[in-house]
Amino acid sequence: MKRRVGLVAVLVLAGVALGAEEPPSHAQKHPAPGPTGRAVEVQQKHEEPPQDTAGYILHHVLDSEDIGFQVPLTDREFIYRFPVWRIPFRAGACPADVHEPASLGAGCLDVSLTKMSAMLLLGTVVLLLVFLLAARKQTGRLVPQGGLANFLEMMVVFVRDEIAIPNIGKEEGPKYVPYLLSVFFFILVLNLLGLLPWMSSATGNIAVTVALAAFTFVLTQVASIRAAGVWGYLKHLTGGVPWYLWPIMIPVEVLSLFTKPFALTLRLFANMLAGHIVLFCLIGLIFFIGHIAVAAMAVPLGMGIYFLELFVAFLQAYIFAMLSALYIGMGVAMGAHAEHPSEGTSPKAH
Fold first, then answer.
1. I need a labelling partner for 329 at 20 to 30 A (CA). Which of 6, 103, 249, 319 fits?
2. 3 state SS of 194
């Protein structure tokens, strides 16, 4: 485990070393690009045209090839541009100009880091370090010692006893606890990182939530096939209706399979994105109206939204894990009612 953490740290530091250069001694608007075409820029805000509030908010919530760090109480801003990493599948597939977009259809795979992918890597490293730190001195102990270890054990037991087992069952539930713990803590760490200064919420990006929901979707189908078998899984798609209604029922049942991950995707994405936009809009009123008196209202409301977002960070991690367990439990339940009730018989509970 320590070797894996060390490998991740080396990769992150390698990306920083490739993308960063020594900042210039004076403010410059267009720094000379390095070997990878990216650099660290130091900008003076009074040299740049004023940025509108909406543009600043969109730049914060959307993915980009750079990330900015504002020096407190100054006009200086450090902008780190991530290195360009491209894999050509044939000679000349990747454009020579790093600013020109790569095309997978032309045979060039762009695996460059972006702001959101960097947040995913950072969240992974933080999560590994937290658990390694908590488990460092717990070997051979039945009862963990230390505040962090006790807190993590409480969360693990909560996910197992209040999410996995009630929704999946005592027999099958423990098998899916590792996955539920992974998504719960991973989403929670990403949500909390998004509340820190200069950071962004990766769960506010729909590509991230689609990937997380896809894992739940695949695991749900695997659980269904394990419980009912391939034939029972396919037979479940008929809905137990007569054969002449299959052309109607089968598309409806197939569509219902995808509504679950779709709901997971939008629920997490919309809640995290909306919270950040509302928070920035409240603070942005100070600059949009241009009067310091607006801060008397905007700052307290912004603080209230910030603490609400702190609560939502835990809530959304819980909801995603809960719904994932519920969908997996519905798949496991196929084994108990693989045979649909035929006509003239009393329906069974699903």
1. 249
2. coil
CB 112 within 8 A of CB 78: no
Residues 6+ apart with CB under 8 A from 128: 1, 4, 5, 8
Dihedral sign from CA coordinates of 305, 308, 313, 317: negative
Burial of 162 (0-12, 13-18, 19+ CB in 10 A): middle
Residue 222 is encoded by which pair of tokens? Answer: 């695997």
- Whole-angstrom distance, CA of residue 203 vs CA of residue 343: 46
Q: Which residues pair with 68 in a beta bridge?
A: 79
Helix or strand holding residue 80 (H, E):
strand 76-81
Q: From the CB of residue 282, how many other CB atoms can be counted at a distance below 10 Å?
A: 20
Helix, strand and coil percent figures for the chain, each rounded to 5? 65, 5, 30
Claim: this prediction has a pTM higher than 0.85: no
Report the C-alpha gap between 88 and 95 in whole angstroms: 10
How far, in Å, CA of 295 to CA of 287, rounded? Answer: 9
For residues 180 and 172, give the distance between their C-alpha atoms in angstroms, rounded to a whole number.
13
Max CA distance (Å), the chain: 85
| Domain limits, the chain | 2-90+107-113, 117-136+148-335
Helices and strands of the chain, counted as H and E runs = 9, 5
The tens digit of pLDDT for each residue in 279-324 reads 988 988 888 888 888 899 999 999 999 999 999 999 999 999 999 9
Residue found by looking up tokens 């695991």 in the block: 219
The torsion of the CA quartet 85, 86, 87, 93, rounded to 10 degrees, works out to -160
Regions of the chain where pLDDT drops below 70? 1-52, 336-350
Residue 40 gets which letter from DSSP? E
